[in-house]
């Protein structure tokens, strides 16, 4: 039997992250991440499956440390991100949240997602896949220590950025 209060708390946390992304509330979104957080979107292999070693294999996005994520967000505000000039509007749909493991200081969780983004220049884009989270328990909430984003599609048409997946 799942720990329903924990599942509800984790679900609310993931839904909050999605809402902050959609509302482009970057400082609040960044606060969800631990200082040593990893944000990873592995590439897909030609033979199928995903790359498994972000240090030595190709990735769509691989950022180590919150400082790196902050630098990425800084680029959004300075119009130096080709994928985000101008920034498209997004809607994140997060569903199927499940707890894979719960320890005293961490929770491993997964969820399915779909993101619809729209800009005048590129029109509407739809991406989907799954999330794998390692959350650290802090006080009465969580911090994201690791977010792995598995894209359903293996061929990317156009650009995407950290807030569009």
Task: Walk me through the structure.
This protein has 165 residues and is α+β, with helices and mostly antiparallel strands. The protein has one domain: Nuclear Transport Factor 2, Chain: A (Roll). Helix content is 22%, strand content 43%. The protein is built from 3 helices and 6 strands, in the order ααββαββββ. Strand 3 and strand 4 form a beta hairpin.
List the SSEs and their pairings.
Elements: H1 4-22, H2 26-30, E1 33-42, E2 59-64, H3 66-77, E3 89-102, E4 106-119, E5 123-138, E6 141-151
Parallel strand pairs: 1-6
Antiparallel strand pairs: 1-2, 3-4, 4-5, 5-6
Classify the fold: give the CATH topology: Nuclear Transport Factor 2, Chain: A
Number of domain units: 1
Total beta-strand segments = 6
Question: Approximately how much beta-strand content do the residues carry?
Answer: 35-45%
Distance between the termini: 31 Å
What is the helical fraction, as a range of percent? 10-25%
Largest sheet: 6 strands, mixed
The SSE string, one letter per element, is HHEEHEEEE
Structural class: alpha+beta
What is the C-level CATH assignment? Alpha Beta
Which whole number gives the mean pLDDT? 89
Runs with pLDDT <50, length 5+? none
State the helix count. 3
Basic shape = globular
Name of the CATH architecture: Roll
Integer-rounded radius of gyration: 16 Å
Strand order of the largest sheet: 2-1-6-5-4-3
């Amino acid at each position: 039997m799942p720990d329903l209060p924990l599942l509800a708390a984790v679900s609310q946390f993931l839904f909050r992250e999605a809402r902050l992304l959609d509302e482009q509330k970057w400082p609040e979104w960044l606060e969800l991440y631990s200082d040593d957080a990893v944000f990873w979107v592995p590439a897909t292999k030609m033979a199928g499956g995903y790359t498994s070693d972000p240090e030595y294999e190709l990735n769509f996005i691989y950022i180590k440390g919150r400082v790196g994520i902050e630098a990425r967000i800084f680029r959004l505000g300075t119009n130096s991100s080709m994928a985000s000039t101008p920034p498209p509007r997004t809607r994140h749909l997060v569903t199927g949240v499940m707890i894979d493991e719960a320890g005293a200081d961490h929770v491993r969780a997964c969820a399915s997602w779909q993101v619809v983004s729209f800009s005048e220049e590129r029109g509407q884009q739809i991406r989907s896949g799954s999330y794998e989270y390692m959350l650290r328990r802090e006080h009465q909430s969580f911090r994201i220590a690791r977010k792995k984003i598995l894209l359903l599609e293996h061929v990317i048409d156009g650009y995407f950025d950290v807030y569009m997946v």
